[in-house]
Write a structure and sequence with these properties.
InterPro entries: AA/rel_permease1, APC_superfamily. Helices cover 73% and strands 0% of the residues. By secondary structure, it is mainly α. Helix 6 packs across helix 7, helix 6 packs antiparallel against helix 15 and helix 7 packs parallel to helix 11. The N terminus and C terminus are likely disordered.
């Protein structure tokens, strides 16, 4: 038995997540889908090109390299943490229950910011698709509410069903993007094929450093592989493999796609094209190099891409809530799973209601679904998740220093230090260049940057209060029980 695994309470027998439900591929599909490759390329990559210039592909390579360093130290702990609590259990293990609970609360808030905010993008993209293909102008709140119901349905049916659907959608969107990239290269681009994007004078410019926030946002969700270890087949192998596959694939694929789009317009013209075409850049490019039919298909696939992302984040949020309920921090009914599907359906219901309430409030307030709902709600989530990644790196360093036997490789401790430094450096870069994400005024940007630290502070205060008023609950924080029969 692991040093962090104890027997579950007998009362929990029969109430647990579905075991042996997904393998390496299923986990990888879940976390890559959360990043929504087609969406981050078509919707956000033009901004990266406009700011970073022809060196923009290197922004994704740099982000992938930093996250790979993080993944090595992160995965070093997977053999010692058997619970499916993600950041929560890892940080509690090394830094104590107070910091652990604060991290869990920040993770739940951050993932909700990412998931709920993206309903704005789903609404906008679906509106554009319906208008372009059918001439229908549907109000965005109606589109978002239908999407919330669809996400809830698949989340309710269980992780294996969701993984299969996400797998199909992910293969479709990545294959379609690849077709565009190959089409561009086959026709020689606009000015012939050039590799100057990867030369030092273009790859490490201030513009590329400025877009790192955008590039890191493209990887959001990959770290949630550990949330599925209770449902994974052979988790000690499948979870690390899925993590490395996700980071490696996204880094290479994003860089390749951005580079091919630069070739489509030419090194000298692509920045102007990005400014002129904006979020229509990929649509115009695929129309030119593959055909008008491909632009129509892209309208459909970008909607399914966002849906896949929503389902993946929904699943991740539910498992955080489920673990906190099992540890006694949240109401016990949230720690119950469906008797047939073994999904944390109670947690899913609460998350669905929260998303619907936010959408309705934004609609009543007349908020813009892209600027206010997507960008402004997403930004605190991005800051929170990257900060938590840095904190996990610190936790890995502390644990490996205390338990030298766990440091099976002499590079693990230095890598955990490097990971922490790099990730907190990224948080600083996001703060410095936040206007590239939000296009908002200074006051709004300040508020958005303060959300994550204030939530973390509130979590610390809640934990301290629990320690005084409910010591039995405090003692169960991060108890690392298997929670499953």
């Amino acid at each position: 038995m692991s040093d962090l695994e104890t027997r579950p309470p007998a009362a929990d027998a029969g109430n647990g997540l579905k075991r042996n439900a997904i393998g390496t591929g299923g986990i990888a599909f879940l976390v890559i889908s959360a990043a929504a490759p087609l969406t981050v390329m078509a919707g956000v990559a033009p901004v990266a090109i406009g700011v970073g210039g022809i060196g923009a592909p290197m922004g994704y390579v740099i982000a992938g390299a930093v996250l790979l360093v993080f993944a090595v130290s992160f995965m070093a702990l997977t053999k010692h943490v058997k619970a499916a609590g993600g950041f929560y259990t890892y940080i509690t293990l090394a830094m104590g229950k107070t910091v652990g609970l604060a991290s869990a609360i920040l993770a739940i808030v951050s993932y909700n910011c990412l998931q709920i905010g993206v309903y704005g993008l789903f609404a906008v993209q679906t509106q554009a698709m319906l208008l372009a293909l059918f001439g229908m102008d549907v109000p965005w709140p109606a589109v978002a509410l239908v999407a919330i119901a669809a996400v809830w349905f698949l989340g309710y049916r269980g992780i294996d069903v969701g993984a299969k659907v996400l797998g199909v959608l992910l293969i479709a969107e990545t294959a379609f993007l690849a077709i565009m990239g190959v089409g561009i290269l086959a026709r020689g681009g606009a000015e012939g094929i050039s590799f100057t994007s990867f030369s030092p004078e273009h790859a490490f410019t201030p513009g590329v450093l400025a877009i790192l926030a955008i590039c890191f946002a493209a990887f959001m969700g990959f770290e949630s592989t550990v949330l599925y270890r209770r449902e994974a087949r052979n988790p000690d192998k499948s979870v690390p493999r899925a993590t490395y596959i996700a980071v490696g694939f996204m880094s290479v694929f994003y860089a390749f796609m951005v580079w091919t789009v630069i070739q489509a317009h030419g090194d000298g013209n692509v920045v102007a094209a990005a400014g002129e075409l904006a979020d229509g850049m990929f649509f115009a490019t695929i129309n030119q190099y593959v055909g008008p039919w491909a632009e129509v298909v892209m309208y459909v696939l970008i909607v399914t891409s966002v849906y896949a992302s929503q389902l993946a984040f929904h699943n991740a949020i539910n498992r955080y809530v489920y673990m906190l309920a099992k540890d006694g921090v949240l109401p016990a009914f949230l720690g119950r799973t469906h008797p047939k599907y073994k999904s944390p359906h109670r947690a899913g219901q609460i998350q669905t209601i929260l998303a619907a309430v936010v959408i309705i409030m934004c609609a009543i307030a007349g908020a813009d679904p892209y600027k206010q709902l997507l960008i402004w709600v997403n930004t605190p989530g991005i800051v929170g998740i990257v900060a938590l990644q840095g904190l996990v790196s610190v936790a890995a360093f502390i644990y490996l220093r205390r338990n030298r036997a766990a440091a099976t490789n002499r590079f693990l401790i230095p890598l955990s230090v490097a990971s922490a430094i790099l990730l907190f450096g990224v948080v600083a870069l996001i703060a410095i260049n936040i206007e590239l994400l939000t296009f908002a005024d200074a006051l709004t940007n300040t508020i958005l940057l303060l959300v994550a630290p204030l939530v973390f502070l509130a979590g610390l205060l809640i934990a301290r209060r629990l320690r005084t008023t409910r010591p039995d609950v405090f003692a169960r924080i991060g108890s690392f029980e298997t929670h499953d029969s």
